[in-house]
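TASK: fixed-backbone design
INPUT:
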């Protein structure tokens, strides 16, 4: 198999920590860096991308770029061997970038930690919202009672105001 020409530095691509794959116009993999082979646990070279990587969103994006779009970006989840969330960006070269016809560059960026942080933020907001509902509902109940049935009851008013003011001496033990 011919190696990419001097226009593409495969040594540099192999040094990338993110998986990188080069495709020709036929959607064949002409180069996969060591990170791609390791993370995606596959041999790619000289095969159609669909034979090694069966994710419809990625294949559709690759087809769109190979058909002439400048770039595409999709997010996928890999369940094995280690669960990961990946952002896949596919970029088309203006003309073949190597002797073997590399016309598109695929970069897989692991966004698992960002996805986990976003999920933790959403869980925190949901939990905080849930935890605040009970005290707020209690305060609303006290206010309604003070405006209604306990409006003229000084003893009840003082008790409710103490509870709402977080006076611990009023709370039952």
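OUTPUT:
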């Amino acid at each position: 198999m011919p190696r990419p020409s001097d226009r593409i530095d495969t040594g540099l691509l192999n040094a990338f920590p993110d998986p990188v794959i080069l495709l020709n116009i036929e959607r064949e993999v002409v180069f996969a860096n060591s990170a791609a082979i390791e993370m995606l646990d596959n041999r790619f070279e000289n095969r159609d991308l669909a034979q090694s990587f069966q994710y419809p969103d990625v294949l559709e994006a690759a087809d769109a770029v190979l058909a002439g779009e400048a770039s595409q970006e999709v997010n996928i989840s890999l369940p094995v061997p280690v669960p990961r969330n990946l952002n896949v960006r596919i970029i088309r070269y203006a003309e073949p970038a190597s002797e073997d016809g590399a016309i598109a560059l695929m970069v897989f960026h692991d966004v698992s930690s960002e996805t986990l942080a976003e999920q933790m933020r959403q869980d925190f907001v949901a939990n905080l919202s849930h935890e605040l509902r009970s005290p707020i509902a209690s305060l609303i109940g006290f206010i309604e009672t003070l405006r209604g049935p306990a409006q003229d009851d000084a003893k009840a008013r003082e008790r409710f105001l103490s509870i709402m003011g977080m006076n611990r001496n009023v709370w039952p033990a």
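COMMENT: Residues 94 and 159 are 77 Å apart (CA to CA).
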